[in-house]
Amino acid sequence: MSKEKKSWRKLDNAALLFSADNNIRDTRVFRFYCELKEDIVEELLQKALERTLEVYPIFQATMRAGLFWHYLEASDIKPVVVEEYKEPCRALYIRDKKALLFEVTYYKNRINFEVFHALTDGTGATLFLRELVKQYLLERYKELPDVSLHPEDMTLQDQENDGFAKYYTKRKGSKIKRPIAFQLRKIVPSYKTLQISEATMEVDALLKRARELGCSMSVLVTTLLICAIHQEMPKLQEKKPIVLMVPVNLRKFFASTSMLNFFAWIEPRYNFSEEAGDFEAVLATVKTYYAEHLTAERMEEHINQYLSLERHPIGNFVPLIIKNWGIAIGSRRRRQEITAIFSNMSVVEMPEVYTPYIERFGVFTSTPKMELCICSYEGDISLGFTSRFDTTNIQRNFYRLMEEQGVKATVKEPVYPETDTPNLTSLTIYKWFSFACILAAVICLTVNFLGGHNSWWSLVAVAGIGCLWTTISVGYYKRNNLLKSVMWLYVLLTCGSMVWDAAYDFRGWSVDYVFPAISIVVLLSMLIISRLQAHTAKEYMIYFLMAAFYCIAVSVVLILLGAVKTFHFPVIASALAFLVVVVLMIFKWKDFKEEMSKKFHTRHNG
Questions:
Q1: In percent, how much of the chain has pLDDT > 70?
Q2: What sign does the CA torsion over 597, 598, 600, 606 have?
Q3: Nearest residue to 371 (alpha-carbon basis) of 238, 225, 160, 213
């Protein structure tokens, strides 16, 4: 296939959904794994990964934040295969940190492929893992033939094709009013391990029972999961419906070779306060829902609704930070409309020459709710329950109901190495620091109030504490990108000093001395950071230019307003900033232009 290298692609509103509300309980990471019949050799798996990335280079990308959008940027970071060392589905995307959005690990005979959901969906992850397993087997067993798993003429553009844009028709469907769904409770603390329950069953047994009931396997599993949840549902909560989110692979309705996200979802539901509560009644309702909603026309409505939001003329010019807030709020609202998630990753197929070496495939995902993922391989279905709840009753109920339908599930004990616990030291220190700031402010106000009201010195103290807390908070939350952190601190410190100066009849010290001094320190700091961290021109030029233009613009405005009394330091700082711009334009502009010219504007649907 073509090996052309692209530089970046914009992420749209859906990808923002995966980043704006990303946290320790909902990392938006899912794991596809393959168990072989022999233990993994690390060196061979590393070679297999490198060969797989030659086939699917689209995965070698990092996610960056722009002014209006997130975007994926092609990266030269080399992924390194290591033995499993952390709990499954731990966060891969760290805001402001330049890192790949996938990871390959192994444990005994298992190959783990974990990926951040903004990069790809279940279909893309399946294709990548299949290729990775194939390449590993070719490295391990030299006598095996190389059987292609993808079209030989597939190009990078084929992998990047935007299926949503291709099938967008602007036709709007009717808006659906979604009620608040029944919510599972008893969430364990967010630092506790993800609860994982796995089982296997025979495809033929499940398929046979589904045919006897006149439905698909997905309809049968959906019905059983709703019934399993209902058995744990309090009577007073039955007025709320049980709603499952079921992702749908749009490639089954619309031709697409995209490795990017191209999926929609349906939401089968059942209200036990309005309808009969027996299995047959639930099955009939779910079967009807699937028949009415799992159609090309309904999926086209999803695409149109999705793209109309992404292409909204006003939304295109809303700053990213505001988009993040809005989508995070919308995401939390949507969670209230969903009880649990059921994801059918369908059949994983491998050429017959490789099957003697493969035991099974499996899948599960991180979730703040409860999620059931299934996939099948060579006559067996693998089920993966994940949740953040301190109970396994629903899983038990599901397996019991499945057995009542004549399908025996074999529960598998998860086998994972002893892993490290999430490092909460820095977060804990920051929380204690925040508490100390609040405590100091309260003490100052209390002492001032009890000691008399002749002078409200405590307000000055509280303002100082607030400035300290703001400065430390910016440094803490932007610590993964030092250049961005320095720029934020530059603006906050200079503006803060001017506010302080204005509060005391504006004596001018903030603009005569503090602003130029901070400007010079910031420019020198950026130079040191870019050297120590070996940033490319593309990575550091934007921050240098922002700092230089900020220094020059603010200095000019202050001088024109007559706020500057001593011109020496502001002029020196402005001259230095101007020289920085000149040096970058003369010596680094060519490098910057070459890197930026590689950009391409293919939209990436998250």
A1: 88
A2: negative
A3: 225
pTM metric for this prediction:
0.78
Find where tokens 């090996």 sit.
3
Residue 163: how many other CB atoms lie within 10 Å: 20
Tens of pLDDT, residues 14-61 = 444 444 445 556 788 999 999 999 999 999 999 999 999 999 988 988
What is the DSSP secondary-structure string of 248-292? EEGGGTS----SS--EEEE--EE-TTTS--SHHHHHHHHHHHHHH
CA atoms of 512 and 571, how far apart (whole Å): 10
SS3 at position 36: strand
Alpha-helix residue ranges (DSSP H) falling in 423-481: 425-451, 457-477
The two structure tokens encoding residue 439: 């405590």
pLDDT band at 6 (very low <50, low <70, confident <90, very high): very low
Scanning the structure block, which residue is given the tokens 């004549």? 406
Q: To which H or E segment does residue 452 belong?
A: none
* Tokens representing residue 313 in the block: 């003329």
Q: Output DSSP code: residue 350.
A: -
Render pLDDT for 256-271 as a digit per residue (tens, 0 to 9): 888 888 888 999 999 9
Q: Residue 25, SS3?
A: coil
Buried b (16+ CB within 10 A) or exposed e, 122-157: bbbbbbbbbbbbbbbbbbbeeebeeeebbeeebebe
Residue 421 CA to residue 58 CA, distance in Å, equals 31
d(CA 603, CA 408): 45
Q: Which two tokens stand for residue 149?
A: 């798993």
- 138 contacts 149 by C-beta, under 8 angstroms: no
DSSP 127-188: HHHHHHHHHHHHHH-TTS----SS-TT--HHHHH--HHHHT---------PPPPPP----BP
Question: Residue 97, exposed/middle/buried by CB under 10 A (0-12, 13-18, 19+)?
Answer: exposed
CA–CA distance, 214 with 291 (Å, rounded to integer)? 12
Cβ-based neighbours of 177, under 8 Å, separated by 6 or more? none
Tokens of 72: 């994926």
Residue 598, pLDDT > 50, answer no
pLDDT value at position 8?
A: 46
Task: Report the candidate in 365, 175, 345 with the shortest Cα–Cα distance to residue 252.
Answer: 345
Question: Per residue in 186-213, pLDDT tens?
Answer: 655 555 678 899 999 999 999 999 999 9
